Write the structure tokens for this entry.
Amino acid sequence: MQENVFNALADLALNASGQSISMSKAYLIEARLAAIARREGFGSLDDLVHTLEARQNPVFRAEVAAALLPRDTWFFRERGSLEALVQNRLPERLAASPSGRIRIWCAGGSTGQEAYSLSMLLEDDTRADLTGAKVEILSTDLCKHASEKARTGIFGHYEVQRGLSIHRLLKHFTRLDSGDWQASEALRARISLRPHNLLEPAGGLGKFEIILCRNVLSGMARSGKSRLADSLANQLAPGGLIILAEGETLYGLTDRLEPSSDLRTAWVASGTANAKASAA
Amino acid sequence: MKTCLIVDDSRVVRKVASRIVRDLGFAVTEAAEGAEALLMCRESMPDAVILDWNMPVMNGLDFVKALRREEGGKTPRVVFCTIETGAEHIQEALRSGADEFIMKPFDAEILESKFAEAGLI
């Protein structure tokens, strides 16, 4: 890939989604844009970039920007933090909720495996304090196609075999004539999906008791990370938690959030972690 | 080192699976069908079995039922790996004693994921 072509695409990724892509990952750009290039009949990425710059079509730019995002996700990724959330944190958050309702935001939820994993954990949890609990899961992603795919709850042969036990597959999914598998109505009913750019204001999404933003920060440039951190803080309900992936941190990005005192990878509104620890 | 017996009448599948399983840190042995595999288990019970369904002499379903009747035969984690992907096949395999189920085709990520689900890694 020519350097000017790479730079144009790297700039697009940075400006549209805060993603930082180095030249060493140029092969990923080629792989991620291959489908669009084929569909539009571009002979090369040079042609695609020239068209991007000539047409200035915001819809096409958004589609290309979304295609540059890392897409790798699977069911029950970092399973421990999801299980700890459902087993330990949800009951206490529900008990503290005046409305008896909990809203969870899967920020950057890609094709929905994270949201469906949470929904499965809730379906499988038979404890009295979670039975019938009103838990709403919103999964958002910059890529409209990813959100639409997640909405169908339909996953392919390889997707349903990564991270998902055969027992859960049989319990929660139905095999379609196409060979794909569709999540049950019970799983889907708890989840809503919509496109959303994490760099844009998220006020319209409402407040959330729990925000999962895992494996998003690590691919972002610093400027994007700071904007994202503030956006997440804005949407956090009082007493709420933000869960990151292992190895990710919000240190130095915002002074509105601090690490949770008792849950690894979790962050809370500043001033609340020690208060909780003292109360305990 | 944990051991894994790969049972499939396809030499290609055995080779592909062997490479992946060795990369997961297992010592690997192979059998081309169920009866041969059962004899090998009587000699030395493996920690894991990757098992095809349709094989000559003794198929996978008969193998796992026989295995579970053997002394020590409840120990190995059995992961079916087959083109039989209907829900009824899967349920029959689990009822017969399988722990996990891989629908072919598979890749290294799927095999590793299923080994994790089976408690092998």
Chain A has a mean pLDDT of 90. The beta strands of chain A are 101-107, 134-141, 154-155, 173-175, 181-183, 191-195, 208-212, 236-243, 257-259, 266-269.
